[in-house]
Q: What sequence folds into this?
């Protein structure tokens, strides 16, 4: 908690007293501090505020911005997964005959899934390599506005890349697995 006096006309400074107080019996403590203040500086009116409220006010804008970014990020990932799911379904459907021939020739399901996933994994890896430098520059510029900040680590970007890769593989595999499990005769009959 900080108590402050108004500007001193002779020195042009504000006089501030910062106290660390317990939250037990807060009103009684504030009254006792006010009484001591009036004994020492009766001509100066007392004003006070809680320092933690002041700090919280500083970061309210960032907190709201974080909530908005999180909401749009979740929505963006959901839309991207829907697009990836549709693209995987289309690619698997286009390659139905190829999958049937591979199965007849003895290919195992994991091998076919690996083949279908590889074309999407390449795209995700290229997208990450393009996104990492841009994200680093933007995040670093944003963090420069803070006095106390964390350093950006390569592990942060590698972790995000692994998560995007995992989401892509799971999305593509779920669709490709349906096509791979069908009997080769249905694919070759068409």
A:
């Amino acid at each position: 908690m900080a108590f402050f006096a108004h500007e001193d006309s002779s020195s042009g400074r504000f006089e501030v007293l910062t106290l660390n107080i317990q939250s037990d019996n807060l009103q009684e403590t504030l009254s006792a501090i006010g009484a001591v203040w009036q004994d020492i500086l009766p001509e100066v009116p007392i004003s006070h505020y809680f320092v933690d409220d002041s700090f919280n006010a500083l970061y309210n804008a960032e907190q709201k911005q974080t909530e908005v970014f999180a909401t749009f990020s979740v929505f963006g990932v959901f839309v991207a997964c829907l697009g990836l799911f549709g693209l995987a379904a289309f690619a698997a459907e286009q390659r139905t005959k190829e999958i049937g021939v591979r199965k007849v020739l003895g290919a195992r399901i994991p091998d076919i899934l690996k083949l279908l996933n590889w074309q999407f994994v390449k795209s995700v890896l290229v997208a990450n390599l393009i996104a990492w430098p841009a994200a680093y520059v933007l995040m670093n510029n944003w963090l420069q506005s803070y006095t106390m900040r964390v350093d950006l680590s390569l592990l942060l970007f590698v972790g995000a890349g692994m998560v995007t890769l995992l989401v892509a593989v799971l999305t593509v595999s779920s669709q490709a697995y349906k096509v791979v499990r069908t009997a080769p005769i249905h694919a070759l009959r068409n």
User: Anything to note?
Assistant: The first strand starts at residue 2 and ends at 4. The mean pLDDT is 82. Strands lie at 2-4, 16-18, 47-49. Residues 99 and 180 are 7 Å apart (CA to CA).
